[in-house]
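Today's session is about reading a structure prediction critically. Students often jump straight to the picture, but the first step is always the sequence itself: look for stretches that repeat, for charged clusters, for runs of hydrophobic residues. Only then move on to the predicted structure, which in these notes is written as discrete structure tokens rather than atom positions. Here is the chain we will use throughout the hour.
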Amino acid sequence: MRAAVPPTFVELDQGLPQQVIEIYLDSAPDLLEQLVQGIRQRTSEQILAAAHTLGVCSARVGANELAELCKKVSEVTHAVDTLLVEEK
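Below is the predicted structure for this chain, in token form.
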């Protein structure tokens, strides 16, 4: 007897992709605001957390340009942190 093939996400719920996009559209503005606040306050932990979360979520829904920008923000933040540590 053959094992049953598990259903795909599409077979489970036709509305799932739309729900994911709606959740992204609801949460992205808050994540962007957190990123902006982190930059204004020069809080690298907040910048890195917001950039990472926004970047991953953006990549998942196909917002690749925003995901790439978030990656660059993270890289620059890491570089600045490294320079500051080396100066001490």
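Discussion point for the tutorial: Residues 5-10 have pLDDT under 50 and may be disordered.
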